[in-house]
């Protein structure tokens, strides 16, 4: 009985003991993952739903007044860089090219050899002329020797005829022979001079097989190769070259622009000009009007204007597109003259509530635009003079959209600030 009672006590449930431990680590990990996902979702929602601002283009505000002198554009035009001194160099004779000594972009000096032609024919002509000169000189020497003998004979016979030792006819014959040899000597000497001139011409023919640069410049085109036939004239159809290469004198570069007839009165000789190459829009090149060509193009109703480039630079090459601004003459500012303000692109000025305003880029991150009222002055080409409301060095918004308001958020498009 006691054993059975002990076994029943062992089967009894002890409700006063501690509950078995549970594994809470998985629960905490699940809660952490849920919190992270909620944070990521919230950040993504904030990023995609936030106000990114209006996309705009901008330009700097430039100073045009104050002390010193200032110039304003009175007319804008476009044209091209041209060379006043350019030559396609060819040979003076027709011949086969033996060697070409130039390449595109190479600088050459005046008289430098650019190419040589096959000199076989020219050398043969020179050899023949040299031989003819030798023969003519030999003949002249022979006649001169005969003349010396004839003169001595005539002198001797003149003494004998006075002594009546020889006949007068014998003396006359000696004199005649002497005079004949004198004439032959003159002819032989002239033949020798003609042969000498022919040799000199043959030397020129040999020199013509060498093509030299007529002036210092830069090679812009190489037109012939060894083995080709070149000729100063168009001969032999399409298989004959008419030039060795093209040389441009880079010091003779200038600008040619077409100005409309209605505006040509604004342009004067010696007028200052500011040129901007299409390839380098941030580079302002000082220039000056050379002359106005006194003829008009009736088809385009334009007049051509030549402009000198005052700043020489290897970046300026022929046929480059260029925009020019004709500037009014510099006028010294007096001590009493008020500041002339700043200049901004005309596209930066808009009408808001009946007034002229501009939007200035503001904020540490340049992500907002501040609306400012401005007082306008003169029209300076594509720009406007602003006498108050803006300061030099600030950045304004170009073509502000209607939805842009004061302190509105903006995004600068493209490469940021447009150089003006």
TrEMBL record:
Domain annotation Multidrug resistance protein MdtA-like C-terminal permuted SH3: ranges: 343-399
Keyword Transport carried by entry: yes
GO cellular component, as recorded: efflux pump complex
Source superkingdom: Bacteria
Keyword set, alphabetical order: Coiled coil, Membrane, Transmembrane, Transmembrane helix, Transport
Main location: other
Subcellular location: Cell envelope
Pfam families, A to Z: Beta-barrel_RND_2, BSH_RND, RND-MFP_C
Family the entry assigns: Belongs to the membrane fusion protein (MFP) (TC 8.A.1) family.
Coiled coil: 133-198
Domain CusB-like beta-barrel stretches: 255-327
Protein name: RND family efflux transporter MFP subunit
Species: Luteimonas cucumeris
NCBIfam families: RND_mfp
Membrane-spanning segments: 27-48
InterPro entries: Beta-barrel_RND_2, MdtA-like_BSH, MdtA-like_C, RND_pump_MFP
Molecular-function GO term, any one: efflux transmembrane transporter activity
